[in-house]
Write a structure and sequence with these properties.
The complex is a heterodimer of chains A (about 800) and B (about 300). With about 800 residues, chain A is mainly beta. Chain A is built from seven helices and 52 strands. In chain A, the strands form eleven sheets. Chain A has a 22-stranded antiparallel barrel. A five-stranded mixed beta sheet of chain A has the order 8-15-16-11-12. A four-stranded antiparallel beta sheet of chain A has the order 3-2-5-6. With about 300 residues, chain B is mainly β. In chain B, β19 and β20 form a beta hairpin. The chains are: A mainly beta (about 800), B mainly beta (about 300). The interface between A and B is large, with 89 and 87 residues. β51 of chain A pairs antiparallel with β1 of chain B.
């Protein structure tokens, strides 16, 4: 009998939360939102800390500024912090259920607060997040700019583990992944080409962006569909306190943003636009050909949000961007994304949060003769996404939180349609990608937390389509084609299901002390669509193709270990991580693959595997007049394509370096604000040369010498380094309404960094020669006048 | 010499796409004025020395070949000719001719056999001191359109078009998809033979169409040029494999190293070691039907 009583007591003891055993009675749920007091914007990753009875209960706000945690009833102290905002503290008496709204004031001299360290400590030392970087629009704007444009993607390239194949290249590479392995989201809508003007600028207008979060590993289960990273960019919601406007006028582009309350405190709107005007200056060159050249980009961002009730909030956002390049009477070329997202948030109760999203994303390009040409020719290509998501977040207790949901993406691929003098069309493709996920975060002990998740994805390639059939054996060439088969609308061509669709995710955090943590993660990812590009950098005319009858989905598994140390009471942070990533079924290309307007694209593709591993180092100082960071990455990425014949292999099946392999990648970022008027910044970047294919002999055909490239990526370009400088001067004005003049120079010491080395015959001397191409061969100054009112 | 940008009306839409992609490459990489290209000195590795065999047979010319050894890429000396190779021509699987070395042109060989339409040909080659032969793929002489007319005309200045006399041809592509062609142009009896003169097209977008300024524009092959210059044009039918070889050759020799260039590719023709197909030689053996015409640029 006494043992039964003891067992019941023990069970009762262990089944209770620490809060109850603290002796102060019943639990309390605290939920609500954290906002920016000046404009009502929801604050993401703000830290809410409840202190009671010597214990701390903490949580971070989600993307919508929402939080929920379980504490104890009675008197408590609550502290709310967010980077760039003045900490708010207060005493509260908690009832069983408490709904609170916190409004934080922006810090004018924003980085002098010690409590930033608290916020960063909670964010980084106590959560299971690993391999994540978050950057705000404010930080992006401080960095030196190219041609006066603040660029989110150029900013994230300064972080460890993120690189590109070269200056001016489209896209970015994360931990040895190709640029199509990054899921780039704008308010949850995927974008398929994240650059304007062939890669010089990103499509993200920094004025319209609230923040960007990059997951290099430790990917939450809610994300899927890409192997290497997720860049989650969120637009601002709009000032729900007062009408405001801001913008900038630069040498080559200008921008304007207008925001304001539709109903104060309850509904707001944000509209932003920008346009470049290179074409305005071209006629000044007194060259009739340049005068006829069309060259510009524009984009529009918009968002409306409304608080319908205490529990319900709705959002609608859109993006429309376009690039145009052409020559009058000769050709026109345009490409762009447009996205539309609608969302409904509901706090079902103080422990359960719900988000439903429906969105549409569309990327198109057009290449052809001008509309007024006598003989018309136009090539259009397109990829469309229809995505619906239902996601729940449940916070049953301080120790546990649960995220789960379902999603479906419906794709329409239109890889090419020619109209005009000739009417031809490549087969369209349709596909659907249903998925479900669940993720559990468990604070097992005060020092150890683990997030374990599982995502399941499937993919169906559907008709209508006329599919080429090939002889058995897996060799897809025109010579092995044996006929065709026609599939009807919605008819299944191939489904990818089963255990291969399981994507387990795990991340863990062990606090070694108040100032240090050890982290680990594992994730398996699956990617069902591929960007078909055999260029060093993807071009706007590359098309996306789905897995299907002859193209397999790619998979990746990544493990990472990390160490985080808070320095100097939170003024600094040291992060060291190491990772290993294995990739299967990645797409590569036959030598000389002809990808233009190709229906049977499988005849040009090869299948291979990859491995990437590295060590990342990040030392940050985020407070004080002088701040910045040093990032260093040591890494290696290799691929292997070993087919049954020489033509279906690369380098005879040996491992070779990937195009985007960079052994050393060092970035120094420094900001200095000597007073309230001046802000100075500089970056210095050093990168090892990237792999390049050198010729090892010379052939000749009917008098034309040509290089023999027998060893793909067997050489390296010379290393690159570059210094960028910027200064911002704030004129007199009130609060955040000071106009500023931003100026600087990109590539300050005018280094001709080699983007590539290529070989050809000099057309005058007929001698063969090696050449270096530098995309930015000189210093590029800029000046931009920024205003706000 | 011809400038690809001087011809705004390409012979096929695929060519148009390629030219547009080329413009994209040039425009994209020189978009920002400060981009630049500089010659540099490099030490390149020494690769395997391989035979180079370039040979052809047409329905109007007897079989001919040039044989060399490959060299390191930046070696400015010409490739070493091979004068004592043995080359045997096969027609429809039967040995029909042995090519003779031309004493006046080291490395050059010629046979007596003139090709016949519809016949298939291949070569077997023995390099000096090597008992193991190299063999080529089998090439068939395919139908080829004749050139209906050739003429020159004056064009005024226009965007991306220099004013002057341009030379053009009319021809009709035979109906029935699956044809590939090559253009070669001689200016005053000298073959225009720089990489951007490599011109080829297929009938994917223009099967059975006439390039006669009524159906499709006439094909402009040269200009602007001076009055009195003599141009000879040869249109020849080629195999899909040779089409791919020329595509790769042009792509490889015209690369400017921009972000939009495809990865450098190994240009391998249709010649390999008989005993081991993985061991390849360089060059190409092709068989063509040809049509020719000439014009003198008139005032």
């Amino acid at each position: 009998m006494k043992y039964t009583i003891l067992t019941v007591l023990l069970f009762g003891f262990w089944s209770q939360s620490p809060a109850q055993t603290a002796g102060n009675g019943a639990l309390a749920t605290v939920s609500g939102t954290v906002k920016d007091a000046s404009n009502g914007e929801s604050l993401f990753n703000a830290a809410v800390v409840v202190e009671a009875g010597g214990k701390k209960y903490s949580v971070l706000t989600n993307t919508y500024g929402y939080f929920s945690l379980t504490a104890v009833q009675g008197p408590v102290a609550i502290t709310v912090t967010s980077l760039g905002y003045i900490q708010q503290s207060g005493k509260y008496t908690l009832a069983k259920s408490n709904s609170l709204v916190f409004k934080l004031k922006p810090s004018v001299v924003d980085l002098d607060e010690v409590t930033v360290g608290v916020e960063r400590g909670v964010n980084t030392l106590k959560t299971t997040e690993i391999s994540v970087a978050q950057i705000s629009a404010k930080e992006v704007k401080k960095l030196p700019q190219l041609l006066g444009e603040a660029d989110v993607i150029r900013a994230i390239r300064l972080l460890p583990g993120v690189s590109s194949v070269g200056e001016g290249a489209n896209g970015f590479n994360v931990r040895g992944g190709n640029s199509d392995q990054n899921l780039i989201l704008l308010d949850e809508a995927p974008v398929f080409n994240s650059s304007h003007l062939f890669g010089f600028f990103s499509i993200f207008n920094a004025d319209a962006v609230r923040d960007a979060k990059l997951y290099k590993g430790g990917m939450p289960s809610i994300y899927g569909g890409r192997l290497s990273s997720v860049l989650d960019v969120r637009q601002r919601e709009g000032n729900n306190q007062r009408w405001a406007s801001s913008g900038g006028v630069g040498l080559l582009s200008s921008r304007l943003l207008v925001e304001g309350p539709l109903v104060k405190d309850k509904a707001s709107v944000m509209l932003a636009g920008r346009r470049s005007y290179f074409d305005v200056f071209l006629p000044l060159f007194n060259n009739p050909e340049l005068a006829q050249t069309i060259l510009y980009f524009y984009d529009f961002n918009g968002k409306i949000n409304a608080q319908l009730s205490k529990k319900d909030r709705v959002y609608a956002s859109f993006y429309n961007g376009r690039d145009r390049f052409g020559a009058d009477d000769l050709f026109q070329f345009g490409w762009g994304n447009w996205t539309a997202t609608t969302r409904w948030n509901r706090a079902i109760n103080d422990k359960l949060f719900f988000n439903a999203t429906a969105l549409y994303s569309d990327y198109t390009y057009l290449l052809g003769t001008p509309n007024n040409a006598e003989r018309q020719f136009q090539l259009n290509a397109r990829i469309q996404n229809y995505v619906t998501t239902a996601a729940w977040s449940y916070f049953p207790s301080t120790k546990h939180s649960l995220d789960f949901g379902v999603q479906n993406t419906y794709y329409v691929f239109s890889p090419g349609k020619i109209t005009g003098a000739v009417n031809l069309s490549l087969n369209q493709e349709w596909a659907t990608e249903p998925s479900a996920y669940i993720s559990h975060t468990w604070k097992a002990t005060p020092l150890f937390s683990v997030t374990s998740g599982l995502r399941y994805s499937a993919f169906g390639n559907l008709g209508p389509r006329t599919l080429t059939l090939y002889k058995p054996g897996g060799i897809y060439e025109d010579s092995t084609a044996i006929g065709t088969r026609t599939y009807g609308k919605g008819e299944s061509i191939r489904w990818f299901t089963g255990l291969a669709g399981l994507e387990p995710r795990m991340s863990a955090n062990l606090e070694l002390s108040e100032n240090a943590s050890l982290k680990a993660s594992y994730n398996r990812n699956r990617q069902y669509i591929h960007l078909i590009s055999n260029n060093t950098s993807p071009t706007p005319v590359n098309v996306w193709r789905p897995a299907g009858a002859y193209i397999e989905p790619a998979t990746a598994q990544q493990v990472a270990l990390g160490f985080v140390q808070k320095l100097a009471r939170g003024a600094g942070m040291l992060t060291i991580e190491t990772y290993y990533k294995g990739l299967q079924n990645i797409v590569d290309y036959k030598d000389g693959a002809d990808l233009i307007f190709k229906d049977n694209i499988e005849t040009e593709l090869l299948r291979g595997k990859g491995r990437a591993y590295g060590l990342e180092f990040l030392l940050e100082k985020k407070t004080g007049k002088f701040n910045g960071w040093i990032s260093y990455t040591l890494s290696r990425t290799e691929l292997q394509v070993d087919g049954p014949t020489r033509g279906l292999s690369v380098n005879n099946g040996a491992w070779y370096l990937a195009n985007y392999n960079k052994l050393h990648d060092l970035n120094l970022v420094a900001n200095y604000a000597p007073n309230k008027q001046w802000d100075l910044s500089g970056t210095w970047s050093y990168q090892s040369g990237r792999p390049i294919t050198y010729p090892d002999s010379r052939g000749e055909f009917e008098g034309i010498p040509y290089p023999i490239f027998a060893n793909r990526n067997g050489g390296l370009t010379p290393a690159t380094h570059r210094l960028d400088l910027a200064a911002t001067f704030a004129f007199k004005g009130k609060g955040n309404r000071k106009p500023t003049l931003a100026f600087g120079v990109y590539n300050a010491y005018a280094r001709r960094n080699p983007y590539s080395v290529f070989f050809r015959q000099d057309f005058n001397t007929l001698q063969v020669q090696a050449y270096r191409l530098s995309v930015f061969g000189t210093a590029i100054p800029y000046v931009t006048y920024n205003f706000s009112f | 010499m011809s400038d690809p940008l001087a011809s705004p009306t390409p012979t096929s839409l695929r060519s148009f796409l390629r030219i547009s992609a080329w413009l994209l490459v040039v425009g994209g990489s020189s978009l920002v004025l400060p981009s630049c290209q500089d010659p540099i000195e490099l030490d390149l590795p020494d690769g395997t020395v391989r035979p180079i065999v370039n040979a052809r047979i047409t329905n109007e010319d007897s079989v001919s070949a040039e044989v060399f050894w490959s060299s390191t890429y930046l070696n400015q000396s010409p490739n070493t000719p091979v004068s004592d190779a043995v080359l045997v021509l096969y027609a429809n699987g039967q040995a029909v001719d042995t090519l003779d070395a031309l004493p006046t042109k080291p490395g050059s060989y010629r046979g007596k056999t003139v090709g016949q339409m519809g016949n298939s040909y291949s070569l077997r080659v023995w390099m000096p001191g090597d008992p193991k032969p190299w063999i080529t793929g089998t090439e068939t002489i395919r139908r080829c359109p004749s050139i209906d007319s050739i003429y020159s005309e004056n064009r005024p200045r226009a965007p991306f078009v220099r004013p002057g006399r341009y030379s053009l041809v009319h021809f009709t592509e035979p109906a029935g998809k699956g044809d590939q062609y090559r253009f070669r142009v001689w200016r005053n009896d000298t073959l225009e033979n720089l990489p951007f003169n490599i011109t080829f097209f297929d009938d994917q977008f223009n099967d059975g169409r006439s390039f006669n300024n009524v159906d499709f524009p006439a094909v402009e092959f040269a200009g602007p040029d001076s009055v009195g210059v003599r141009y000879q044009v040869e249109v020849s039918s080629i195999s899909p494999e040779f089409f791919q070889f020329l595509n790769l050759l042009r792509q490889t020799t015209l690369q400017v190293g921009s972000p939009f260039d495809p990865a450098p590719a190994l240009v391998v023709g249709n010649i390999w070691r008989e005993a081991d197909p993985r061991e390849y030689a360089l060059g190409y053996f092709y068989a063509s039907g040809v049509g020719r015409a000439s014009v003198v640029v008139a005032p």
